[in-house]
Amino acid sequence: RFSGISLPSHLAERYQDEMTIVLQHQFWNVVVEPDYFSVDLSFNHKRETLTIPFAALTAFADPSVQFGLQFSPAPAEQGTTEAVEELIQGSKPEEESAKDASDKQGEVIALDAFRKK
């Protein structure tokens, strides 16, 4: 189980590896923080609070617009903030990336050959 997840013990026992959370009609008290979200859901007509770190998410789907994302797991034993900082430090600064892109020369192509006559 991922560190930082908070849910009732009967749910933790039932969903030991993975749990699908559906936020559609019956959910309450959604709280979104930088590293996690929390929401109240109904299980067997009883409201339960779930707290889930964003780093624990493995997928997101919105079937109403046919959109979905699959996430790779964060490095083990690191918090969300530490993992993000590690990724940022390993990437190029924006200025360098923009400079690399501007160094490349574009090629002009005549469109006349593609036009209908």
Task: Please describe the structure with a list of short key phrases separated by commas or semicolons.
alpha+beta; SH3 type barrels; 3-stranded antiparallel β-sheet; 117 residues; elongated
Walk me through the topology.
Blueprint: H1 9-14, E1 27-32, E2 36-43, E3 46-53, E4 59-62, E5 67-70, H2 80-90, H3 94-103
Antiparallel strand pairs: 1-2, 2-3, 4-5
Architecture overview:
With 117 residues, the protein is an alpha+beta fold. It has a domain at 9-72: SspB-like (SH3 type barrels), CATH 2.30.30. The chain has 3 helices and 5 strands; from the N terminus they run αβββββαα. The chain has helices at residues 9-14, 80-90, 94-103; strands at 27-32, 36-43, 46-53, 59-62, 67-70. β1 and β2 form a beta hairpin.
Summarize the structure.
23% of the residues lie in helices and 26% in strands.
